User: What shape does this take?
Amino acid sequence: MSDEAVAAEVNEVGVSVPLSVRLRFGHAAVQHLADEIGVDLLHIKGVAVDPELRSGRDSGSDVDVLVRPGHVDRLDRAMRRHGWRLYSTFEWGSPFGHAQTYLHDAWGYVDIHRFFPGIRLEPGRAFEQFWRDRNEVQIARIGCHVPSVTAQGVLLVLNAARSTNGRSVDVRMAWVDASTERRAEMTALVADLDASVAFAAATGELERYRGERDYRLWKIVSEGGSRSAEWWARIRAAPNLGAALRVAARAPRVNVDHLAHRLGRAPTRGEVAGEFFRRPARAVREAWRGIRRAEPGR
Assistant: This one.
């Protein structure tokens, strides 16, 4: 979400503090709640990132935390009790189903990550790897847990792989400009996390992994492609037949979260049905444009 969109929505709910201040208090609020209910989480992105990796750049537009998978439901219930409203769900928030977004009248947006896209290691084991080497930083005078600087660099690069803009600044600062020792540490961690394909998508080496099941998905995510092509890539990237069938079953369904945000309200049944029947026509148009672009001389 852009800073402008955040500012507009925040103004609607009456928050007038500067975005950078609100973000810091948002991190502190989530950490305070997690401490109260015994939830393990790590602050990622934005102001939680080590200064050597962000170099005074903007601090983002929301709070992002990676939560121990077994603690997600507990945190979800507590956040709803303390004034956070569900904005988008795990199911429809992204192609990976990794994050759920909440909005609080005072603290703004918070993204709760149950895993990080690009990491193929089982989410609980991946979180434990980050948790074992965690550091603590003060945000709004609250001690907040963050991954090690090496892990932060890996997460920044993996996050960049999901942007067709390339987010070259993140990749440059976290990887290209890193010391030989830091790059060796990051390479070892990427291997431990089984995250080589996504990492390569951000660093320009994706073609080395053409035989991997998730190669096509990361190619589309990092370089762009039609929605129908993305769904086929998601099915192919699934780790087993059961997961592939679940992805395939979701493909025809309408993303109600996205439709509600577009309309600015909850859609009616008729609007959901109308969107359902418009989707095949859009898929045909996307396929035709792809064919036209592929024609010689175009």
In short: The domain at 3-147 is CATH 3.30.460 (Beta Polymerase; domain 2). The chain is about 55% helix and 10% strand. Residues 269-294 form the longest helix (26 residues). The two ends are 33 Å apart (CA to CA).
